[in-house]
From TrEMBL:
Presence of keyword Zinc: yes
SMART domains tied to this protein: PKS_ER
Family per similarity comment: Belongs to the zinc-containing alcohol dehydrogenase family.
Pfam families, per the entry: ADH_N, ADH_zinc_N
Alphabetical UniProt keywords: Metal-binding, NAD, Oxidoreductase, Zinc
Cofactor section: Zn(2+)
Superkingdom of source: Eukaryota
GO CC entries: cytosol
Enoyl reductase (ER) domain location: 17-373
Protein name: Alcohol dehydrogenase 1-like
Single biological process term from Gene Ontology: formaldehyde catabolic process
GO molecular function, one term: zinc ion binding
Length: 378
């Protein structure tokens, strides 16, 4: 590529400060250093975690930043020491790295990794170091990815090479939301055939969890959301029933217990709200019920009564659906190409990078499932 080894000037959506609209700026993207890959981002999804950083977490050291962590693109150039990738490869950036060498990567029980941004600055959601500058200022790289930019530079341990036949404007969703929800049901909860499940929150992650429950063979999948418009969509992914907590004057856990002879076998909280986390736990049957926390938040403590666990319930958390990222993402892409999992049905809006603030507004109002932004022409 003619740009290899040179600084690239390109467009990116910069978050200069918390709680403010993003600004489309021209930024400079430095060439990749040792073990790094520079990627042309073709498409990116807009995920609630981007909004969380901007409007809820608002960590003062986390700005200015280029947000975005659900993208797909093409390798433009590679730094010294990179053998796994070459220019032209189709790839998905990963917000959870897989170095394949640390104690976590070597342990089949987890998808955590000792390397990458998350090991050091979890609260800030970005490392100190970055290849981005704008107007002479350093701009942080969000979650080690920053997909709201035409180009980004990522450590090779946080990049997955995918099937060249994959449509980037769709498979970008495997970078976060779809793997997160689907894997929470299949890998973390380990939903069993014939079981009864409840999924709280029907955004993209919740709908992917519904799809995961169906994939695993659940008999009843109860979708729980305060927005009745979401049920038709949930049916598409396999939901069998819908409950709106606003339609009842008793706790939702009680409603579900009455519907299921004492509680569901599996519940998945896909909202990121500590009150809903407790409701999801309390909706599980005593003895063997499993409740999984999937929604992302670090703002509040959660609470439960010890007896709820003493009587045999299990409370678990799931990050990126328990997938070891480099291994799992290409497999999910292949499952989509083989028509074993749905993807197109998550996408409700297509926009350009320039329309990103409109996309953020749609998500804040709950009027979309996933908006995909076209970032660069292929």
């Amino acid at each position: 590529m003619a740009t290899a080894g040179k600084v690239i000037k390109c467009k990116a959506a910069v978050a200069w400060a918390p709680n403010k609209p993003l600004v489309i700026e021209e930024i400079e993207v430095a060439p990749p250093q040792a073990n790094e890959v520079r990627i042309k981002i073709v498409a990116t999804g807009l995920c609630h975690t981007d909004l969380y950083h901007l409007f809820e977490g608002m960590h003062k050291d986390g700005f200015p930043a280029v947000l975005g962590h659900e993208g797909a693109g093409i390798v433009e150039s590679v730094g010294p020491g990179v053998t796994e990738f070459q220019p032209g490869d189709k790839v998905i950036p990963l917000f959870i790295s897989q170095c394949q060498e640390c104690r976590f990567c070597k342990n089949p029980k987890t998808n955590q990794c000792d390397k990458g941004w998350a090991a050091e600055r979890y609260d800030v959601m970005a490392l100190d170091d970055s290849r981005f500058t704008c107007k002479g200022k350093k701009v942080l790289q969000f979650m080690g990815t920053s997909t709201f930019s035409e180009y980004t530079v990522i450590n090779q341990i946080a990049v997955a090479k995918i099937d060249p036949a994959a449509p980037l404007e769709k498979v970008c969703l495997f970078g976060c939301g779809v793997c997160t929800g689907f894997g929470a049901a299949v890998n973390t909860a380990k939903v069993e055939p014939g079981s009864t499940c409840a999924v709280f929150g029907l955004g993209a992650v919740g709908l992917a969890a519904v799809m995961g429950c169906k994939f695993a063979g659940a008999k009843r999948i109860i979708a729980v959301d305060v927005n009745p418009d979401k049920f038709e969509k949930a049916k598409v992914f396999g939901a069998t029933e819908f409950v709106n907590p606003k339609d009842h004057n008793k706790p939702i856990s009680q409603v579900l217990a009455e519907m299921t002879d004492g509680g569901v076998d599996y519940s998945l909280e896909c909202v990121g709200n500590v009150g809903v986390m407790r409701s999801a736990l309390e909706s599980c049957v005593a003895g063997w019920g499993v409740s999984v926390i999937v929604g992302w938040t670090d703002m509040h403590d959660f609470a439960a009564r010890p007896l709820q666990l003493i009587t045999g319930r299990t409370w678990k958390g799931s990050l990126f659906g328990g997938f070891k990222s480099k291994d799992g993402v290409p497999k999910m892409v292949k499952a989509y190409l083989d028509k074993k999992v749905k993807l197109d049905e998550f996408i409700t809006h297509h926009m350009t990078l320039a329309q990103i603030n409109d996309g953020i507004e749609l998500m804040k109002q709950g009027k979309c499932i996933r908006t995909v932004l076209s970032v660069s022409p292929q």
